[in-house]
Amino acid sequence: MEGFSIEWCKNDMHLVRILAIASAALLTVHAVAVARAPETAQSICVKYGPCPLDVSAFTCTDTPRSSFVRRVCYDEPRAFMVIKLKETWYPYCEIDAATVQQLLSAESVGTFYNENIRSRRDGTHGPFDCRDHPLPKYP
Predict the structure, then answer these.
(1) pLDDT of 68 higher than 90
(2) Does 28 score more than 70 pLDDT?
(3) How far apart are CA 117 and CA 114, in angstroms?
(4) C-beta neighbour count of 8 within 10 angstroms
(5) How far is the C-alpha of 136 from the C-alpha of 109, rounded, in Å?
(6) Lowest CB count within 10 Å: 35, 46, 75, 130, which one?
(7) Residue 130 or residue 28, greater confidence
(8) DSSP assignment letter at 16
């Protein structure tokens, strides 16, 4: 082959090694920077409510004992709760802290939610339905 030399291959392989080492170093620096990055806002999209909604200032609790209720986030000063049912977030307005605590400590979180918070299948709104109570304003 014309223009091909063993010396050119050696130089090219040396360049490939240098680039591989530099790439690995950059990936390591990036991984460390990401691992140490401060926690940023946690935004969710609430069905029938704010989207996006930053819940980083809410008190959020996972509910691993329930296969239905996955997470509850509560903003006590505004008496506003969002609840993740399966994969969808729903809003509840003017809900008191005692009810939220009862929900979280219930033997069955799903049963407590169904019996005390949610709207009824006949269309009757639940006691904290945001259609009947003002939805708080969030930036």
Answers:
(1) yes
(2) no
(3) 6
(4) 10
(5) 25
(6) 35
(7) 130
(8) H
Q: Provide the 3-class DSSP secondary structure of residue 98.
A: helix
Assess whether pLDDT exceeds 80 at residue 108. yes
Long-range contact set of residues 133-137: C-beta below 8 Å, sequence gap at least 24: 133/93, 133/94, 134/93, 134/94, 135/49, 135/50, 135/80, 135/91, 135/93, 136/75, 136/78, 136/80, 136/93
From CA 84, how far away is CA 37, in angstroms rounded?
Answer: 26
Residue reference for tokens 């000063």: 77
pLDDT tens for each residue of 34-43: 333 333 569 9
Residue 79: what residue type?
A
**Do residues 60 and 96 lie in contact, with contact meaning Cβ atoms separated by under 8 Å?**
no
pTM across the whole model? 0.70
What tokens does 124 get?
């009757």
Under 8 Å CB-to-CB from 76, ≥6 apart: which residues?
59, 97
Going by C-alpha positions, the residue among 138, 9, 18 that lies closest to residue 80 is 138
Task: Please report, for the chain, the start and end positions of each structural domain, with discontinuous segments joined by +.
Answer: 1-37, 43-116
